[in-house]
Write a structure and sequence with these properties.
Blueprint (H helix, E strand, L loop, with lengths): L8 E6 L1 H13 L3 E6 L14 H7 L4 E2 L7 H9 L4 E5 L7 H4 L6 E5 L7 E2 L2 H7 L4 E8 L9 E8 L6 H25 L14 E2 L15 H10 L7 E5 L2 E10 L12 E5 L6 E5 L5 E9 L8 H8 L3 E3 L3
Parallel strand pairs: 1-2, 1-4, 2-3, 4-5, 6-9
Antiparallel strand pairs: 5-7, 7-8, 10-11, 11-14, 12-13, 12-15, 13-14
Helix pairs in contact: 1-6, 5-7
Length: 321
Amino acid sequence: MSAQRAAPRAVVFAYHDVGVRCLRALIDAGVEIPLVVTHEDSPGENIWFGSVAEVAKEHGLKYVHPADPHDPALIETARAASPDFLFSFYYRQMLRREWLDLPARGAFNMHGSLLPQYRGRAPVNWAIIHGARETGATLHRMNEKPDNGAIVDQCAVPILGDDTAREVFAKVTVAAEIVMARSLPGLVEGTAAERPQDLSQGAYFGGRRPEDGRIPTDASARQIHDLVRALAPPYPPAFLDIGSQRIFIERTLRAERPGTAPGSGLRLLADPASEGAALWLIAADGSGLRVLAARCDGDASTLDAAQFESRFGSRCVAVGA
């Protein structure tokens, strides 16, 4: 940025790791940040990610975590700061027109996919569930429709066949930082090229709930593996029920299944004789997954083949039995 020109000013809405890294990118670039709006961590949530509030505190930035970001007093505080830009980095609430119209040079959002693919909520998780081999981060202009505005820049990252959502999210976080760092000069100079999205090339996806993690009994091993890794901890994991007992499947590996598996449909198979006393998940089509980590609801210990056979009285049990 030119030394003759006053530093640009930006109001920042941010949360999670992407919020942390993109806020740091703005600070590093010398952007003046009169206000950071973040979320107060929920006591019931597994907070495994970085704190935007801590970064703001470290750098002496004013930060707030309002229950309602559209509080008129907060909007007036931001307006009085005369920001050039508004940035939203993984902030969890939609911002209404009064915020989008406030900055002199526009409002921009960082989204965790290659827009227009996977617009909406939980884009990393949805991409893995659908077996995508690539995702990324996209900086786009905000309007009143979610993830709808013109694209400024995006950066792709690979999704490997055994990557979990946390591993992919770490890549997306780096991609977001790259996009922010290389896009900011063009935004400040007014030379950033924006291109409209072709929404026909993607779809919108809603949020996910823990109960959405039930493993379908008719799914293939490939589909099950994708669901398991998309929901692997720290997210609420994929699960199945055997009678009244719920089993969480936290990690799987595609592998050649051992011998025969009695019965039909979706089954859990204990193989105590195999290396590591393996537990196998046999899909309805007969293909198998080695279960690397599983546990019964209410039990923190790992469920292995010997424990499974002891608990259920059989080495092969049909799901729903």
